[in-house]
Design the sequence.
């Protein structure tokens, strides 16, 4: 059964046209899906009953079921495990800050890359998500927020999976979420995080935005190490795309888009928190339009690495200060609720049918 969220506007138009519907129906249905966030065909009161019945018989909207949910104590972070049509589950997180509400969404079930420290990597790869399954996660939280008269303001593609290994579905989802006649999220309110798939970064550099010009999303690169020797260990993809190749692609991306790249760095005690790594990082970033996000490692079941000490963090950032490298030390949200990438699904593998 096809899912409506998997169809872009031309595909929805041609489906309804093939059913003999007038041309304006596609726009009506589109607005129900992406402006009014309808999760039930019966809400679509300006569509004739016969059309709603046919849609119900031959399609589904693609709204995932909530299989589990956990909330942080203050309620500002919530993580939902969503069950897809084939029974697979993905994690999606909502973070509420003073001035914004961010959904962290997944692009694959599991991940084929296998970074040592990552719970998603530890579970292996199950399958790619469809574009509709990616979109549905953001709409899910948009509905949750709407019930409190709030709007979803940001989306980060930082959940399970590697977005640039599921390129077409990811780009289609980004275009859907930013469609001015639909959900209308600003391109600048979307961040795509990649482990550093060089051909994907090259493709992304050439994507057009709505009004010509480059796509305005933020690219985040999960760097974690600034020497090939260390990065080979932490991020196996580095053996395929070395740091030189990765940084060449980053330079090209910045040249084409004029956009600053964020570099993610999870500080791991005794591994990548040394002054030598900070110096190597500063050397790589010299002259590059960049920002480093330093995150304490979130410990996971199958990795013995630990977060760095305060003293190591301070020594690390001192090196960056000395070389005028812009950075932010981020507090990890939701450690108490297994909000680290892949951890909720890991917990649920043995009781996957649990309901909230
Ligand atoms: N595959 C993409 C996006 C998903 S991972 C990527 O790797 O960028 C999202 C972010 O979470 C990445 O920066 C990743 O390195 C980080 N991450 C994964 N496991 C982590 C952990 N245990 N502690 C801290 N950060 C982690
Ligand atoms: Fe995959 Fe990203 Fe986790 Fe690495 S950090 S295993 S690329 S999800």
Sequence:
């Amino acid at each position: 059964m096809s899912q409506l969220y998997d169809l872009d506007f031309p595909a929805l138009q041609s489906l309804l046209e093939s059913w003999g519907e007038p041309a304006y129906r596609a726009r009506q249905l589109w607005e129900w899906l992406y402006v009014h966030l309808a999760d039930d065909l019966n809400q679509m009161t300006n569509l004739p009953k016969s059309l709603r019945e046919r849609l119900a018989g031959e399609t589904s909207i693609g709204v995932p079921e909530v299989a589990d949910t956990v909330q942080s104590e203050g309620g500002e972070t919530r993580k939902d495990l969503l069950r897809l049509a084939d029974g697979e589950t993905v994690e999606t997180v909502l973070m509420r800050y003073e001035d914004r509400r961010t959904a962290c969404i997944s692009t694959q079930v599991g991940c084929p890359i296998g970074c040592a420290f990552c719970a998603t990597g530890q579970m292996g790869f199950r399958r790619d998500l469809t574009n509709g399954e990616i979109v549905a996660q953001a709409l899910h939280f948009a509905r949750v927020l709407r019930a409190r008269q709030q709007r979803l303001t940001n989306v980060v593609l930082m959940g399970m999976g590697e977005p640039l290994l599921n390129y077409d579905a990811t780009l289609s989802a980004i275009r859907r979420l930013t469609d001015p006649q639909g959900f209308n999220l600003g391109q600048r309110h979307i961040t795509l995080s990649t482990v550093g798939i060089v051909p994907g970064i090259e493709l992304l550099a050439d994507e057009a935005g709505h009004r010509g010009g480059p796509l305005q999303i933020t690219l985040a690169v999960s760097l974690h190490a600034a020497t090939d020797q260390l990065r080979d260990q932490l991020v196996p993809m580095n053996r395929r795309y070395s740091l030189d190749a990765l940084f060449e692609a980053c330079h090209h991306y910045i040249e084409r888009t004029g956009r600053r790249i964020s570099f993610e760095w999870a500080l791991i005690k005794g591994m990548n928190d040394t002054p030598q790594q900070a110096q190597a990082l500063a050397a790589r970033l010299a002259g590059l339009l960049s920002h480093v996000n330093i995150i304490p490692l979130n410990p996971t079941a199958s990795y013995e690495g630990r977060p760095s000490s305060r003293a190591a963090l301070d020594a690390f950032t001192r090196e960056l200060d000395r070389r005028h490298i812009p950075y932010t030390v981020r507090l990890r949200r939701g450690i108490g609720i297994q909000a680290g990438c892949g951890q909720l699904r890991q917990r649920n593998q043995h009781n996957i049918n649990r309901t909230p």
Remarks:
- Residues 111, 113-115, 118, 120-121, 161-162, 195, 222, 341 surround iron/sulfur cluster (ligand 2) (CB under 6 Å).
